[in-house]
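Lab meeting, action items carried over

1. Structure of the two-component assembly. Owner: GW. Status: complete.
Input record:
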Amino acid sequence: MSRVRVLVGTRKGAFILTSDGKRDRWDVAGPFFAGWEIYHLKGSPADPDRIYASQTSGWFGQVIQRSSDGGRSWETPGGGVTKSPEGMPMGESNRFVYDTSPETGKPLTTHQHYDGTQRPWEFKRVWHLEPSLDDPDTVYAGVEDAAIFRSTDGGHSWQELAGLRGHGTGPRWQPGAGGMCLHTILLDRAHPGRIFTAISAAGAFRSDDGGNTWKTITRGLRSQFLPDPEAEVGHCVHRIAQHPSRPNVLFMQKHWDVMRSDDAGDSWREVSGNLPTDFGFVVDVHTHEPETVYVVPIKSDSEHFPLDGKLRVYRSRAGGNEWEALAKGLPEKDCYVNVLRDAMCVDSLEPCGVYFGTTGGQVYGSSDSGDSWAPIVRDLPPVLSVEVQSLP
Amino acid sequence: MTAVRVSLPPHLRDLAGVGAEVSVEVAGEATPRAVLDALEARYPALRGTIRDHGTHARRPFVRFFACGEDLSHDPPDTPLPRAVSDGAEPFLVVGAIAGG
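Predicted assembly:
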């Protein structure tokens, strides 16, 4: 019997939800790092017991936490110190320094601020951690102000992949309401060295050489709030999803519009179809059906809650355009929560399990590909991220 | 060497794996910079949490109090009150009231 482990980051700590393959009875562990914002946790595909967590605070800054036993115990992996004088595991792992070396191109450029002025890059927090597909000690970090870092020593030290900021469009990147964050990192198993990233509000980028050089992948995106709606950068991309069996097919939820690419992002077309609203944050792809896609439409960019107070996941089994509302087991009235960009995921069991968390502190799960839903836990702090691991 | 008592806020106690108060040895005159240098040397997990990694500037929501005084805005090499350097009073690292 397979098991699943759901990793939940919230505004006030991390929680780990576990179940057997039936996914109808859940154990809730936590809070870990109580009181700290946990923007994201994610396990290594190469070693499911290796989990990385982004622990951050407006008071005390950024800390990276690492577990090597599936989340039972944690350590701060950096700094070369493994024990405190009191015998506690500890270290220093919160040093994210932007690259300033001239050989990386133009990493010293400024970016656009809300008021249109240029500002220098300033590290604020890690939004997303993406462990390598085959090395538990290699992990990528997407940060605010937008940049991508990589650690090859288990989070002990971090180096920026500065070619992203340095490739020339940086001065036109601008923050969204949540800050100028790099929130999506996709590693392509079929194309070693290929990495996709997305930034709010700059757009989407692809590297084909392990992160050394990057190109924008925004052709076909339209954003009416831009002076040039089809500009190369400035699009507020909220999330990109990919099915591993068809790595050139990408699905994107942006500020407005659900988009699809069939050529690894070189061009995009809108697939919002009959969605009641094409605004939202999450998008994900069914584990076993690469044409089955999930989104959670939100009323608008100013209200950020479900239409008519009805929380509904929408599913397309045609790769977009044709969408059906999934409501069984979800609140059908008086529900005004949001589902943030890292807060949906799918497991690899059969049938596919789908999970999402809300700003109201609920984590919902479906063990039948979305046909029906049930709350796993209802009263957590606002949920920032949800990831799932399928375990033997 | 001077033994200075340092009081930490709960989040940083958890991070460093210590109780509410620790004692650090300071070589030479006890100043905020010297105390924090000694604190970070003994508890590297606290590097970057009280002061910026690069500039060593105090993080905006962190305050330093001692003997009923707010020392947050003093230059970092200002001598601490005698009661702190004597170990009679702690150097307080406080998370300012903010947020929700």
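2. GW to write a short summary for the group page. Key points so far: Residues 64 and 73 of chain B are 8 Å apart (CA to CA). The radius of gyration of chain B is 12 Å.
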